[in-house]
Amino acid sequence: MTKMRLAIVGAGPAGIYAADLIIKAERDFEVSIDLFDLLPAPYGLVRYGVAPDHPRIKGIIKALYEVLDRGDIRFFGNVQYGKDITLDELKDHYNAVIFATGAIKDATLNIPGVELDGSYGAADFVNWYDAHPDVPRTWPLDAKEIAVIGNGNVALDVARILSKHPQDLLSTDIPENVYQGLLSSPVTDVHVFGRRGPAQVKFTPLELREACAIEGVDTIVYDEDFKYDAGSQDAIDSNNQTRVMVATLEGIRTKEQTGASRRLHLHFFSSPNEILGTDGKVSGLRIERTELDGHGGVVATGEFRDYPVQAVYRAVGYFGSELVEIPFDGKYGVITNQAGRVIDSEGNTVPGVYATGWIKRGPVGLIGHTKSDAMETIACLIEDRNTWWKPVHQDEQSVIDLLKGKNVKFLGWPEWLKVDAAERQLGEDQGRERIKLVDRQDFLSAAFEEN
Ligand SMILES: Cc1cc2nc3c(=O)[nH]c(=O)nc-3n(C[C@H](O)[C@H](O)[C@H](O)COP(=O)(O)OP(=O)(O)OC[C@H]3O[C@@H](n4cnc5c(N)ncnc54)[C@H](O)[C@@H]3O)c2cc1C
User: Fold this and answer.
1) Which atom of ligand 1 is nearest to the CA of 357?
2) Which of 140, 295, 401, 449 is deepest in the core (most CB within 10 A)?
3) Candidates 21, 64, 101, 364: which one to mutate for ligand 1, based on the most atoms within 8 Å of Cβ?
4) Ligand 1, atom 13: nearest CA belongs to which residue?
């Protein structure tokens, strides 16, 4: 039987599911897979995006761990495509590559004032509280009143972490610098603004219910925001998820407030218009009220309101990053592809190059969606076997020699297991399940130092 050597770049859920699926697929060739990630840790946004107080979702890590721990996929952490390994080098060592590089940056929001001190992208804040190794260790938490722009789950995550009392995060894996940062926050009010109405939010029911039930935080909604047109009613009648969400929000309308020291306000029909500043620092958010257009959409009303806030978090979506030598669609932030086959600017298929996950279809959807996505890509890859690359180095050792020759300090699976053990030990020492390591140097020490 011929042996296929497959490189997968990106060890988030999309990359790991793709590896697992090709191993389990019906095929008439053997396959040997190397999974690269620029981070010293696997799991992508499940580790560096999902909020620390979502242990249920973090449980997916266990399933991903089991795939990698089987021993039939090699992990190479701390290896960045485009820097530590190039497309030509991949061609020399593999029959094909799948890019599963996800998204880490914020999408842009073009309103005046985004550049002000105190205006933050949600992704940067998420990277900080999730202990991403490549971001600063401190985060400026000096605002009493904060605006969060967006009506998706990331906006809810950000608003929840900002308003939650930090001691309630001590059961999670947040490191000390994040705990201390949150402890110093004087926040009293977090305002979440969405352009549309309660029947149009992009939240999911579980996340909304959770945000409305934070210990020691009152959730506040406003009567003027509860309007439904025929389009909204259609959505409520036809979509169970919308019905549950509207019922949850209607429930908050009648809920007594407790006089808690922190409040989470959910505003609808409020389109961000300008971030206001004083002396270069955020001092407010101007929104324009919108109203329903009869079909569930909204139109601007010309009525503006200013909210005094000292920080604004923009949670308006993520955006994929371009990869060296790989065709990229700058409008949508994805690798140009059809069903996972990468397509060049003339519309021709690029042999041997595939995409999956958020970098394939854009940064929307839950972790589970990356599995169906990977299935499609893997089916194309198997079908295309006659057009795969013909590598000059087929043996598994040669890529290790290549990386070592370039002085790339990569972590294999056994090294990652040492890091994993070090994080558990750190947690155990403080009566917690795990505390994340943050510095790359700490990862390398845990991975390579003999104990
Ligand atoms: C803030 C936030 C919270 C979320 N919460 C939830 C939730 O609660 N539940 C849920 O189901 N979904 C949640 N999601 C969605 C979920 O995280 C995504 O659906 C999923 O992670 C996408 O998987 P992916 O593998 O395509 O990308 P990613 O998870 O982003 O993985 C991509 C990997 O590629 C690596 N990479 C990138 N560039 C390179 C390169 N040049 N070389 C080598 N490696 C590279 C990255 O380091 C990363 O590890 C959340 C997303 C965000 C942003």
Assistant:
1) 26
2) 140
3) 101
4) 366
Which residue reads 């722009």 in tokens? 149
Structure tokens at 98: 């799948």
| CA 168–ligand 1 middle distance (angstroms) | 25
Indicate if ligand 1 lies below 6 Å from the C-beta of 357. yes
What's the 51 CA to ligand 1 centre distance in angstroms?
A: 12
Q: Which helix (H) or strand (E) holds 73?
A: strand 73-77
d(CA 266, CA 256): 16
pLDDT tens per residue across span 231-279: 999 999 999 999 999 999 999 999 889 999 999 999 999 999 999 999 9
Read off the pTM.
0.95
User: Would you say 64 and 16 are in contact if contact means Cβ atoms under 8 Å apart?
Assistant: yes
| 292-322: pLDDT as tens digits | 999 989 999 999 999 999 999 999 999 999 9
CB 288 within 8 A of CB 112: no
Check pocket membership of 13 for ligand 1, CB cut-off 6 A: yes
